[in-house]
Amino acid sequence: MIKRIGKALLIIIGVFALATTALNYLGVALDEKPLDYTGLYPIADVSSNNNGFDDLQEFLSEADEESSAEVEEALENAFNKARTDALLAQHEHRLLLIEQALEKPSFKSHPIDFDSPFPNYGGYGDLLNIVLLKARSELQAQNFPAAITHIELAVKLTQQIKTDQSATLITYLVGVSYQEKVMNWLHQFVSSQQLSESELSQLMAVIDVIPDYHNDQFNMVFSGEFAYMQSFPEEVSNPSIGARISALLDSDSDANLWWTVWQDNTAVNLLSIPSYNYFYQKNRTKNKLYKHLQYLQKQTTTNYCTKIDYQTIPSGQPSFWTSLGMNALSIVNHDTWSTYINRRCFSNFHTQAIKTIVALKQYSLTYNKPVKTLEQLVPEYLDSVPIDAFTGEPILYNRSAQTLYSRGIDATAGNGEVANFVARCFADISCKNDPTISIEFDQ
What we know:
Distance between the termini: 99 Å
Shape: globular
Structural class: mainly alpha
Number of strands: 5
Radius of gyration: 25 Å
Number of domains: 3
Helix content: 40-55%
Largest sheet: 3 strands, antiparallel
Order of helices and strands: HHHHHHHHHHHHHHHHHEEEEHE
């Protein structure tokens, strides 16, 4: 009997040792944090309550669609003080939650439900609208410090979405789209007000917290993604994310596993699967994919945006970008990937333009005259001349018309002063009517 027990213990110890060896080979230490049910990223450590958006989950899971629509309508239409005050009073506790959440050092969103590894993007958009409505209300009351504070909060919120610890590019896409919405609103804010130099400086500081809009970072990150996606065939099947993950997990050979990732047309494979923690476990695919991504990251260029067809952009349909949710994955095909890159390039241009407009206004207040060339803003008002991601060249400046513009891919349209992509700023009515970025000085 004792021998049997001893043999059983030896077997158990042996199995445990083999399991430990196997887990370590796969890169998963026994004391490592557990993974969530998809295996894509670690479960957040909430023991220290450092994950800011944990505090917002109740609101996100119980979002009132009717109330959310009312906030968005109030933000986009002519200002109505009584209606705005009523909505802000209704959402006062949510504003407080946002402020408290963004004071935390880290960010980790949670899946909507068991069937999806992706968070409630629409809920985050609702939060953003509340913050922007508050900023608009403060602006109308001529309370510029409070308005700037809430613009900063909106920028920080979108930046947090982009840097979500789930680390998938679909989340980054949503964050970029929401951030570009903030830039559209900020454009109207800056161009409609004669702010003091100190207020303009505060605005510049707010925009400068968006590090990935600096041109070197922008090109380094996105050129590789674009090159990779261009290598996919345009007309192949587009299975669901669940089917894609299942196929990957169920594959028995390196060849099948790699082919599953490579063959599919959509960006979803690349966007949802290659988190570091996932490949850390799947050691058999780690080296191949890691080396491939390293190679792509070296394919930097300053004007890759010119390679894409602008006609894929759904002009006049801002809801295409602002209501991304669970269905987002079903639309990430070749056309929408091109649309995404266009949107990203436009967002980069728009942010560079806003920074330049703020700098131009600061210069104007200081010297009581408009600047002749953008080079005059360097280095006192801008670190460098702003670069247009579509051309890899400096953003163009028309002193007499007081506009900023880009040639884009169509250098002949409007004698080069009206590029197709600028007309896509459909969330900004004034920009839609006049497809240039107007500075609108009050001299």
